[in-house]
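Write out the 3D structure for:
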Amino acid sequence: MLQRPFIRAGVNGNPVADAFYSALVSARIHDAPGQEADTVELTFDDKDNLVAMPAKGAALSVVFGNGAFGAQKMGRFIVEGTAIEGGDDGEFIVVSGRSADMRKDIKEPLSEHFDDVTVGDIVRQLAGRHGYGAKVDPSIASIKLPYVARYEQGADDFLTRIADRFGALFAVKDGKFLMLPHGLLPPVTIDKRECESWKFQIQPRPLYGKVEAGWFDRAKGEVQYEQHDTGMPGAARRLRRILPSQAEAKAAAQSEGNRLGRATGTGSITLYGRPDIMADAPIVTTNFRTEANGLWRCAGVDHVYDDTYKTTVEVEAPEEGKT
Protein backbone atom coordinates (compact mmCIF):
# COMPACT_ATOMS: atom_id res chain seq x y z
CA MET A 1 0.00 0.00 0.00
CA LEU A 2 2.88 2.35 0.75
CA GLN A 3 3.93 2.09 -2.89
CA ARG A 4 0.66 3.57 -4.18
CA PRO A 5 0.95 7.34 -4.04
CA PHE A 6 -1.67 9.33 -5.89
CA ILE A 7 -2.52 12.88 -6.89
CA ARG A 8 -5.88 14.43 -7.73
CA ALA A 9 -6.32 17.89 -9.20
CA GLY A 10 -9.00 20.29 -10.30
CA VAL A 11 -9.06 23.55 -12.26
CA ASN A 12 -11.65 26.22 -11.48
CA GLY A 13 -13.64 23.69 -9.49
CA ASN A 14 -13.71 21.01 -12.20
CA PRO A 15 -11.77 17.70 -12.23
CA VAL A 16 -8.92 17.63 -14.75
CA ALA A 17 -8.98 15.29 -17.77
CA ASP A 18 -7.00 12.04 -17.86
CA ALA A 19 -4.47 13.73 -20.16
CA PHE A 20 -3.37 15.85 -17.20
CA TYR A 21 -2.14 12.78 -15.33
CA SER A 22 -0.60 11.03 -18.35
CA ALA A 23 1.50 14.12 -19.15
CA LEU A 24 2.38 15.00 -15.54
CA VAL A 25 6.08 14.48 -14.78
CA SER A 26 6.20 15.92 -11.26
CA ALA A 27 4.25 17.99 -8.77
CA ARG A 28 5.82 19.95 -5.93
CA ILE A 29 3.93 21.63 -3.09
CA HIS A 30 5.71 23.86 -0.58
CA ASP A 31 3.73 24.33 2.64
CA ALA A 32 5.15 27.45 4.26
CA PRO A 33 4.83 28.59 7.89
CA GLY A 34 2.93 31.65 9.03
CA GLN A 35 1.99 34.26 6.45
CA GLU A 36 4.42 33.03 3.80
CA ALA A 37 2.58 31.91 0.67
CA ASP A 38 2.29 28.21 -0.09
CA THR A 39 3.43 27.39 -3.65
CA VAL A 40 2.84 24.75 -6.31
CA GLU A 41 4.96 23.72 -9.31
CA LEU A 42 3.71 21.23 -11.91
CA THR A 43 5.93 19.88 -14.69
CA PHE A 44 4.39 18.26 -17.79
CA ASP A 45 5.91 16.29 -20.67
CA ASP A 46 5.29 18.40 -23.78
CA LYS A 47 7.14 16.39 -26.41
CA ASP A 48 4.24 16.66 -28.86
CA ASN A 49 3.27 20.19 -27.80
CA LEU A 50 -0.20 18.93 -26.90
CA VAL A 51 -0.34 20.27 -23.33
CA ALA A 52 -2.77 23.21 -23.09
CA MET A 53 -1.23 26.33 -21.57
CA PRO A 54 -3.20 27.14 -18.40
CA ALA A 55 -4.68 30.59 -18.09
CA LYS A 56 -3.02 32.95 -15.66
CA GLY A 57 -5.32 33.36 -12.67
CA ALA A 58 -6.89 29.91 -12.98
CA ALA A 59 -7.70 28.29 -9.63
CA LEU A 60 -5.90 24.97 -9.11
CA SER A 61 -6.73 22.54 -6.30
CA VAL A 62 -4.38 19.64 -5.46
CA VAL A 63 -4.80 16.53 -3.31
CA PHE A 64 -1.92 14.19 -2.44
CA GLY A 65 -2.21 10.82 -0.78
CA ASN A 66 -1.10 7.21 -0.43
CA GLY A 67 -2.42 3.93 0.89
CA ALA A 68 -1.05 4.41 4.39
CA PHE A 69 -2.20 7.97 5.17
CA GLY A 70 -5.14 8.51 2.83
CA ALA A 71 -5.82 11.76 1.00
CA GLN A 72 -4.94 15.27 2.14
CA LYS A 73 -5.92 18.54 0.49
CA MET A 74 -2.66 20.35 -0.28
CA GLY A 75 -4.34 23.68 -0.95
CA ARG A 76 -5.95 25.93 -3.50
CA PHE A 77 -3.58 27.88 -5.72
CA ILE A 78 -3.75 30.61 -8.34
CA VAL A 79 -1.70 30.02 -11.49
CA GLU A 80 0.86 32.83 -11.77
CA GLY A 81 3.09 31.76 -14.63
CA THR A 82 4.05 29.10 -17.17
CA ALA A 83 7.53 28.30 -18.47
CA ILE A 84 8.41 26.36 -21.65
CA GLU A 85 11.60 24.34 -21.31
CA GLY A 86 13.48 21.95 -23.56
CA GLY A 87 16.81 20.21 -24.17
CA ASP A 88 18.40 16.80 -24.36
CA ASP A 89 16.04 15.51 -21.69
CA GLY A 90 12.93 16.49 -23.65
CA GLU A 91 10.36 19.28 -23.80
CA PHE A 92 8.39 20.42 -20.78
CA ILE A 93 5.89 22.94 -19.53
CA VAL A 94 6.29 24.13 -15.93
CA VAL A 95 3.24 25.70 -14.27
CA SER A 96 3.73 27.67 -11.04
CA GLY A 97 1.23 29.14 -8.62
CA ARG A 98 0.78 30.60 -5.16
CA SER A 99 -1.76 30.12 -2.42
CA ALA A 100 -5.12 31.57 -3.42
CA ASP A 101 -5.45 33.11 0.05
CA MET A 102 -2.41 35.38 -0.39
CA ARG A 103 -3.77 38.02 -2.76
CA LYS A 104 -1.51 40.86 -3.86
CA ASP A 105 -3.59 43.54 -2.11
CA ILE A 106 -2.58 42.06 1.28
CA LYS A 107 1.00 43.04 0.51
CA GLU A 108 0.33 46.59 -0.66
CA PRO A 109 2.29 49.01 1.58
CA LEU A 110 0.35 51.49 3.71
CA SER A 111 1.06 53.79 6.64
CA GLU A 112 -1.43 54.27 9.49
CA HIS A 113 -1.67 54.03 13.25
CA PHE A 114 -4.04 52.57 15.83
CA ASP A 115 -4.78 54.09 19.24
CA ASP A 116 -6.10 52.28 22.31
CA VAL A 117 -7.34 49.16 20.52
CA THR A 118 -7.00 45.42 21.06
CA VAL A 119 -5.09 43.00 18.84
CA GLY A 120 -8.43 41.43 17.93
CA ASP A 121 -9.79 44.82 16.82
CA ILE A 122 -6.84 45.35 14.46
CA VAL A 123 -7.00 41.87 12.91
CA ARG A 124 -10.74 42.09 12.34
CA GLN A 125 -10.51 45.61 10.88
CA LEU A 126 -7.77 44.71 8.40
CA ALA A 127 -9.40 41.39 7.50
CA GLY A 128 -12.69 43.14 6.74
CA ARG A 129 -10.92 45.78 4.69
CA HIS A 130 -9.47 43.09 2.42
CA GLY A 131 -12.61 40.96 2.29
CA TYR A 132 -11.48 38.15 4.61
CA GLY A 133 -12.90 36.62 7.74
CA ALA A 134 -10.94 36.73 10.99
CA LYS A 135 -10.11 34.25 13.73
CA VAL A 136 -8.12 35.45 16.75
CA ASP A 137 -7.41 33.27 19.75
CA PRO A 138 -9.04 34.76 22.91
CA SER A 139 -5.66 34.78 24.70
CA ILE A 140 -4.40 37.24 22.09
CA ALA A 141 -7.55 39.04 20.98
CA SER A 142 -8.03 40.92 24.26
CA ILE A 143 -4.48 42.33 24.49
CA LYS A 144 -4.76 46.14 24.57
CA LEU A 145 -2.38 48.27 22.50
CA PRO A 146 -2.20 51.93 23.58
CA TYR A 147 -0.53 52.83 20.27
CA VAL A 148 0.90 50.91 17.31
CA ALA A 149 2.09 52.34 13.99
CA ARG A 150 2.22 50.75 10.57
CA TYR A 151 4.73 52.39 8.24
CA GLU A 152 4.83 51.38 4.57
CA GLN A 153 3.94 47.77 5.33
CA GLY A 154 1.53 45.32 3.79
CA ALA A 155 -1.22 44.00 6.06
CA ASP A 156 0.53 40.62 6.25
CA ASP A 157 3.88 42.06 7.37
CA PHE A 158 2.24 44.42 9.86
CA LEU A 159 0.14 41.68 11.48
CA THR A 160 3.14 39.34 11.51
CA ARG A 161 5.08 42.02 13.42
CA ILE A 162 2.27 42.21 15.98
CA ALA A 163 2.11 38.41 16.20
CA ASP A 164 5.88 38.19 16.77
CA ARG A 165 5.60 40.71 19.58
CA PHE A 166 3.29 38.38 21.47
CA GLY A 167 4.85 35.06 20.47
CA ALA A 168 1.89 34.24 18.23
CA LEU A 169 1.46 33.15 14.62
CA PHE A 170 -0.22 35.13 11.84
CA ALA A 171 -1.40 33.27 8.74
CA VAL A 172 -3.91 33.62 5.92
CA LYS A 173 -5.73 30.32 5.41
CA ASP A 174 -9.14 29.25 4.14
CA GLY A 175 -10.24 32.83 3.49
CA LYS A 176 -9.42 34.03 7.02
CA PHE A 177 -6.84 36.16 8.80
CA LEU A 178 -5.63 33.92 11.64
CA MET A 179 -3.83 35.10 14.78
CA LEU A 180 -3.11 32.05 16.93
CA PRO A 181 -0.62 30.78 19.50
CA HIS A 182 2.03 28.35 18.34
CA GLY A 183 1.50 24.68 19.09
CA LEU A 184 -2.19 24.26 18.26
CA LEU A 185 -1.57 21.57 15.63
CA PRO A 186 -1.30 17.96 16.86
CA PRO A 187 2.25 16.56 17.09
CA VAL A 188 3.57 14.26 14.36
CA THR A 189 6.01 11.46 15.21
CA ILE A 190 8.80 10.61 12.74
CA ASP A 191 10.92 7.54 13.43
CA LYS A 192 14.37 7.11 11.92
CA ARG A 193 13.26 3.84 10.31
CA GLU A 194 10.79 5.80 8.15
CA CYS A 195 13.43 8.15 6.79
CA GLU A 196 15.41 8.09 3.59
CA SER A 197 17.86 10.77 4.79
CA TRP A 198 18.26 13.33 7.56
CA LYS A 199 20.48 16.14 8.76
CA PHE A 200 20.42 17.93 12.12
CA GLN A 201 22.48 20.89 13.26
CA ILE A 202 22.69 21.78 16.92
CA GLN A 203 23.84 25.37 16.68
CA PRO A 204 26.98 26.30 18.67
CA ARG A 205 25.81 29.89 19.10
CA PRO A 206 25.81 31.89 22.33
CA LEU A 207 22.87 31.17 24.61
CA TYR A 208 20.99 33.73 26.67
CA GLY A 209 19.64 32.96 30.10
CA LYS A 210 17.08 35.74 30.04
CA VAL A 211 15.66 38.48 27.86
CA GLU A 212 14.86 42.01 29.05
CA ALA A 213 12.40 44.39 27.35
CA GLY A 214 11.89 47.99 28.42
CA TRP A 215 8.68 49.99 28.66
CA PHE A 216 8.05 53.60 29.59
CA ASP A 217 6.26 54.02 32.90
CA ARG A 218 4.44 57.35 32.54
CA ALA A 219 3.50 57.46 36.21
CA LYS A 220 7.15 57.32 37.29
CA GLY A 221 8.54 59.02 34.21
CA GLU A 222 11.18 56.34 33.65
CA VAL A 223 11.90 53.14 31.77
CA GLN A 224 11.13 49.87 33.54
CA TYR A 225 12.23 46.41 32.40
CA GLU A 226 10.39 43.11 32.15
CA GLN A 227 12.38 39.86 32.16
CA HIS A 228 11.78 36.46 30.62
CA ASP A 229 13.80 33.41 31.73
CA THR A 230 14.73 31.30 28.69
CA GLY A 231 15.66 28.23 30.71
CA MET A 232 19.06 28.17 28.98
CA PRO A 233 22.43 29.09 30.46
CA GLY A 234 23.98 32.41 29.49
CA ALA A 235 23.94 36.16 29.91
CA ALA A 236 21.00 38.54 29.54
CA ARG A 237 19.87 39.94 26.20
CA ARG A 238 18.22 43.38 26.31
CA LEU A 239 15.93 44.49 23.49
CA ARG A 240 16.74 47.92 22.10
CA ARG A 241 13.21 49.09 21.45
CA ILE A 242 11.29 50.72 24.33
CA LEU A 243 7.66 49.62 24.29
CA PRO A 244 4.63 51.69 25.37
CA SER A 245 3.22 49.34 28.02
CA GLN A 246 4.23 46.75 30.60
CA ALA A 247 2.11 44.05 28.95
CA GLU A 248 3.78 44.59 25.58
CA ALA A 249 7.26 44.54 27.12
CA LYS A 250 6.50 41.30 28.93
CA ALA A 251 5.16 39.70 25.76
CA ALA A 252 8.09 40.97 23.67
CA ALA A 253 10.63 39.53 26.12
CA GLN A 254 8.91 36.15 26.01
CA SER A 255 8.62 36.21 22.21
CA GLU A 256 12.33 36.97 21.80
CA GLY A 257 13.20 34.25 24.31
CA ASN A 258 11.16 31.78 22.27
CA ARG A 259 12.90 32.89 19.08
CA LEU A 260 16.32 32.39 20.66
CA GLY A 261 15.29 28.90 21.70
CA ARG A 262 14.17 28.01 18.18
CA ALA A 263 17.51 29.23 16.81
CA THR A 264 19.51 26.61 18.74
CA GLY A 265 18.87 23.83 16.24
CA THR A 266 17.73 23.13 12.68
CA GLY A 267 17.31 20.05 10.56
CA SER A 268 15.91 18.40 7.46
CA ILE A 269 14.24 14.99 7.15
CA THR A 270 13.22 13.22 3.94
CA LEU A 271 10.83 10.28 4.10
CA TYR A 272 8.13 8.54 2.10
CA GLY A 273 5.17 10.80 1.37
CA ARG A 274 3.39 12.06 4.48
CA PRO A 275 0.49 14.29 3.39
CA ASP A 276 -0.51 14.75 7.06
CA ILE A 277 2.61 16.79 7.93
CA MET A 278 1.94 20.54 7.93
CA ALA A 279 4.06 23.64 8.52
CA ASP A 280 4.13 24.82 12.17
CA ALA A 281 3.20 21.35 13.50
CA PRO A 282 5.22 19.95 16.43
CA ILE A 283 7.52 17.14 15.21
CA VAL A 284 8.67 14.38 17.59
CA THR A 285 11.70 12.42 16.34
CA THR A 286 12.56 8.94 17.67
CA ASN A 287 15.46 6.46 17.37
CA PHE A 288 17.98 9.06 16.18
CA ARG A 289 20.98 10.15 18.27
CA THR A 290 19.98 11.52 21.65
CA GLU A 291 20.76 15.09 20.57
CA ALA A 292 18.38 14.83 17.59
CA ASN A 293 15.56 12.99 19.36
CA GLY A 294 12.57 14.72 20.86
CA LEU A 295 10.52 17.78 20.07
CA TRP A 296 11.06 20.02 17.04
CA ARG A 297 8.86 22.47 15.13
CA CYS A 298 8.07 22.10 11.44
CA ALA A 299 9.49 25.17 9.68
CA GLY A 300 8.25 24.16 6.22
CA VAL A 301 7.37 21.10 4.14
CA ASP A 302 8.03 20.09 0.54
CA HIS A 303 5.75 17.41 -0.89
CA VAL A 304 7.12 16.05 -4.18
CA TYR A 305 5.18 13.63 -6.41
CA ASP A 306 7.03 12.15 -9.41
CA ASP A 307 8.09 8.52 -9.81
CA THR A 308 7.08 8.14 -6.19
CA TYR A 309 5.96 10.52 -3.43
CA LYS A 310 8.42 11.97 -0.91
CA THR A 311 8.14 14.56 1.84
CA THR A 312 10.99 16.73 3.07
CA VAL A 313 10.40 18.34 6.46
CA GLU A 314 12.43 21.36 7.57
CA VAL A 315 12.59 21.57 11.36
CA GLU A 316 13.80 24.03 13.95
CA ALA A 317 14.31 23.70 17.67
CA PRO A 318 11.32 24.17 19.98
CA GLU A 319 11.01 27.33 22.06
CA GLU A 320 12.85 25.77 25.01
CA GLY A 321 15.81 25.16 22.69
CA LYS A 322 18.16 22.29 21.86
CA THR A 323 21.33 22.16 23.94
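The radius of gyration is 22 Å.
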